[in-house]
Every structure is written in structure tokens, then in C-alpha cells.
Amino acid sequence: MPHLTRMLLQHNASLTSLKVRVSPGLTLEFFVEGLKTNTTLKVLQIDLIRNWGLDENDLDLFLELLERHNFTLEELNVVVPLWKEDMTKKKAERIKFLLRLNKDHQRFDILQNDATRDTLVHALALTDDLSVIVYYLDQKLSLWI
Predict the structure, then answer these.
(1) How far is CA 10 from CA 5, 31, 39, 66, 77, in A?
(2) What does the alpha-carbon distance between residue 39 and residue 45 come to, in Å, rounded to a whole number?
(3) Is the entire prediction scored with pTM above 0.70?
(4) Which pLDDT tens digit goes with each residue over 108-130?
């Protein structure tokens, strides 16, 4: 089943929302691999069959996915108790921030290698959220030098 899910995510051309149930003991790595090349899925809901939660490695996988590969996913819904714990809270907040950037702040357009200074200036003019402004200035510092 994990291989089928990964293939579905990698080769999907129209699916924008997906809800899946995951059995205990399966890694979420197959979701992450499939989402690296997916450009249509905006909402992913993962229902854990029992209360096993996400571990820090799962959070690291999704964090790397959103920082480096996927600029389309806007919502990741996983209800787990570990998201509230201190050791994973910063990573969970970073994941939520990147999802919000994908959804509301043109992250895909701005982080492309061919993005221009005008593209960045336009995006910055559309927001009054200081964390978004700082993020883009940090990511595209070369456009200001």
C-alpha cells in the first residue's frame, strides 16, 4: 500500500485533496517521497488508526519536504498528541508557517531560480506580516545585493 500511495502522489495530475488512513508501524516517508514531485495536492489529511502519533523523524521529513521540494501543499491535517510537546513544537510551527506561505504568499513564484526583484517586491507589498517579509528577504537576499 505505501508504494501505491507514493505512485499516486507522484503521478497525480488533478487530485487536490486526499484523506488516508495509516496503519500503526508504517513510516510516513512514502507520503513525503510522493509529495516531492506533486504539484496539485493542496490538502492532505492523515488519519492514524491508533493513537501512535508522529515522532520527530516524521516532522523532520515533512519539514524538509516543505522547505526544499513542495510549494503546493497548503494543509496538512494530522491529529497527534506529540505536536503539542516542546521537542517538536518549533518544527510543527515551522511546518504550519511554510504551509501558510504556500497558500497565501506566492512562495512557489518567489523561490524559483528565475524570480526577479520585481516579483519579490510585489509579493512583499501584498503582506503586512513581518515574519513573511523576513522569510523572503532571507531566502532571496541575492536580489537585494
Answers:
(1) 9, 9, 9, 15, 20
(2) 17
(3) no
(4) 777 877 778 888 888 888 888 88
